[in-house]
Every structure is written in structure tokens, then in C-alpha cells.
TrEMBL record:
Keywords: Aminotransferase, Pyridoxal phosphate, Transferase. GO terms for molecular function: pyridoxal phosphate binding; transaminase activity. This is Aspartate transaminase. Residues 21-352 form the Aminotransferase class I/classII large domain. One of its GO terms (biological process) is amino acid metabolic process. SUPFAM superfamilies: PLP-dependent transferases (SSF53383). InterPro entries: Aminotransferase_I/II_large (IPR004839), AspAT/PAT-like (IPR050596), PyrdxlP-dep_Trfase (IPR015424), PyrdxlP-dep_Trfase_major (IPR015421). Its cofactor is pyridoxal 5'-phosphate.
Length: 366
């Protein structure tokens, strides 16, 4: 079995080799400060006893798991701390396929490309359901694709790349479809703190043994390098997930988990509100420039991505490289996210140079 290197890395490598200044709008690395308590936790950790520099419990520090469980209103034994949301999704998808209820993973189109990549890696079969122009998913369309072969339905809200936020009724219906076919709904909620619509609904709001929720602190605390995520499993599915986690990773980072726990306990809601306000300002700045350039674009309800379509400029890797060379802006090709957005480009608004990037795009496409 062969795996392709994700296009993210190819684009970033190309931008790094460019002979000009390039504004990075490829990766979802927040550019703002992490919580102050997180830095304080790291400083504090450096002076702990030597035993605190050894392996933590494989499933995560007990206190961190208790804090997550209390906030998400679940039993602590349902929580496993993972190497970011990436591993959390891997564990959830693996658990769905090893139940032997089916070999198909239902995904959205457009899709975050790591989901189909993981499906292939795990030996599953991809099935796609198209989202509408705003990125919303119609449960009726999912029901048409679902069958006895469905192992899991994987969704992401707030969504990457469209910025869509699924309302509560959509989430509830998706859980019902999973229950009907004895499948699992895997709900990746890593952008939950970046809901700009006020409509975000966690799948944990639906009482069911047919849903797994994944998340991480990477985006919400601006610490993508710390690799602290988590998955919440139904009680009957958690033990095998913990075993796979142990075999793949042994354990996660103890200092990262310690610092995240400190930040969870001490960070006020204002920290997250300020991040959302900053993002909302950037969305307005960027979409105003796209409007001036005559582009079609999405206005995200959540997450921090904008998709744009420029007339006669499809979202291919070749055009992304041209944009780097000729405009000095690096985005992602829409073709990386599936067939339905092949004419589009995706831009991440996690750079202080959003205004400059907007000006460069407007000038390039005028």
C-alpha cells in the first residue's frame, strides 16, 4: 500500500524555496499568544522532581482527564488523551473499522484530506457526500449513502475547509443515522472555540453509544506544537482504543499535558473571546479584499479558513505555486479537499499579515 505525502507539506516546501517574501496562509498555526497560565505551567514543570520527567500514564494524566471529563460531562474512563486531534481521529476510525460492522467510512466533500488518508491507511473504503455551497451537510444525503457496510460517518464542525457550523438538528440526525446502521458518528470538534455563528452543537449533546467526539487544545490555546488532544468514546469501546493508543504511542508528553491542565484551570473566557474577535476582524478584512478582486468566497461561520474562487484560476497545485511566485501569497489548492471545490483556493487567516495578503491578492487579480 502506498501513501501520498499530504499536499500541505508540498505547498509549504515550495513556499520556503521561493526567492521572494511569501505570506503563509497554508497551515492552521495560530499566530497569537497561548494562555499565560500555560507558560507559567511550563516554567513550574521545569523545577519538578525527576520522577515527573518519566512516562505519564498511557491514557493521559489523571487530573487532565478528570478536568476534560468534568467539562464535557462524561465519565473520566471514557477519555483518552492523544497526540493531538490527529491521533484521536485515527483511534476513532480504527475502532469503527475493527468492530466488523462494515468497511466504509462516509466523508464529506469537501473534506479535510487527512480523513480519507487515514481511511486508506486503515484499510477502509471511502464514500463521499457533497456539502452544499455554504458547506452545510444535509442528513438526507448522508442517509442515501449509508448502508450496512457503513462503519463510520466522519464530520468536522466548525469545518475545515468551508467554515460551516452544523446546527443541533443536523448533528442529532447524523447520530440517528449511525444508530440505524450500527455505525459510529465521529465528530471532530477541534475548532469548537472558534464558532462565530453561535450555532455550534457538540455531538456530546446527543445521548448515544454510537458517537465518538474528538478534540484538541492545539487551536484553542494556540499550541499546535504541544500535541495534546483527546477522544471521548462510548464505555464499551474505550479499552481497545486505549490499547491501540499504547501500542502506537506508549504515552503522550507529560510536560505538555501538565501545562495544558494549568491553562484549563486558570484561563478566563476572555482569552477565547479575544481570539474569536481577532478572527472575525480578519475575516472581514480578507473577504472585503476578495470582494474588491471580484472573487467568489465563503464567509466562515467558524474555524479560521476562507475559500475563494477567482475566474479562470482553478484551485490546482500549479496555480498555487504560481500565486506564491507571482503574488507572494501561499494558500491551499481546492483540489486537495475533494472534487467539489477543485475551482477554489483555501486561505488560513492565522497570520498577522492578513491585510497585506488581501492587498496582494486584490492587486494580482484586478
Amino acid at each position: 500500500m502506498e501513501y501520498e505525502t499530504p499536499l500541505f507539506f508540498r505547498v509549504m516546501q515550495y513556499a520556503d524555496r521561493a526567492d521572494r517574501d511569501v505570506i503563509d496562509m497554508v497551515s492552521g498555526n495560530p499566530d497569537w499568544e497561548p494562555p499565560a497560565a500555560l507558560r507559567e505551567g511550563l516554567h513550574e514543570y521545569a523545577d519538578l522532581e525527576p520522577d515527573q520527567f518519566q512516562y505519564p500514564p498511557s491514557e493521559g494524566l489523571r487530573e487532565l482527564r478528570e478536568e476534560i471529563a468534568a467539562r464535557r460531562n462524561v465519565d473520566v474512563e471514557q477519555v483518552v488523551v492523544t497526540n493531538g486531534a490527529g491521533e484521536a481521529n485515527y483511534l476513532a476510525m480504527a475502532r469503527a473499522l475493527e468492530r466488523d460492522r462494515g468497511d466504509e467510512i462516509v466523508l464529506t466533500d469537501p473534506v479535510y484530506p487527512y480523513y480519507p488518508g487515514k481511511t486508506t491507511m486503515l484499510g477502509g473504503t471511502q464514500r463521499f457526500v457533497a456539502a452544499d455551497e455554504a458547506g452545510q451537510l444535509d442528513p438526507a444525503d448522508v442517509r442515501e449513502v449509508a448502508s450496512e457496510r457503513t462503519a463510520a460517518i466522519v464530520v468536522n464542525s466548525p469545518n475545515n475547509p468551508t467554515g460551516a457550523v452544523y446546527p443541533e438538528e443536523t448533528v442529532r440526525e447524523l447520530v440517528e443515522i449511525a444508530e440505524e446502521y450500527d455505525a459510529l458518528l465521529i465528530s471532530d470538534e477541534v475548532y469548537d472555540h472558534f464558532d462565530l455563528s453561535g450555532r455550534f452543537a457538540s455531538a456530546l449533546g446527543v445521548d448515544s453509544d454510537h458517537r465518538i467526539v474528538t478534540n484538541a487544545f492545539s487551536k484553542s490555546m494556540a499550541i499546535t506544537g504541544f500535541r495534546v488532544g483527546y477522544a471521548i468514546f462510548p464505555p464499551e469501546l474505550i479499552e481497545n482504543a486505549k490499547s491501540r493508543h499504547m501500542l502506537v504511542n506508549v504515552a503522550g508528553s507529560r510536560p505538555s499535558q501538565y501545562a495544558v491542565l494549568r491553562a484549563l484551570r486558570e484561563t478566563e473566557p476572555e482569552y477565547y473571546e479575544e481570539s474569536r474577535e481577532l478572527l472575525a476582524e480578519r475575516v472581514e478584512t480578507f473577504t472585503d479584499a476578495l470582494e474588491a478582486a471580484g472573487a467568489d468566497y465563503t464567509t466562515p461561520q467558524g474555524s479560521f479558513y476562507v475559500m475563494a474562487r477567482f475566474d479562470g484560476y482553478p484551485g490546482t497545485l500549479e496555480n498555487v505555486e504560481r500565486l506564491i511566485d507571482e503574488a507572494g501569497v501561499a494558500g491551499m489548492p481546492g483540489e486537495a479537499f475533494g472534487d467539489s471545490r477543485s475551482e477554489w483556493l483555501r486561505f488560513a487567516l492565522v497570520t498577522p499579515r492578513v491585510s497585506a495578503a488581501a492587498d496582494r491578492l486584490a492587486a494580482y487579480f484586478e
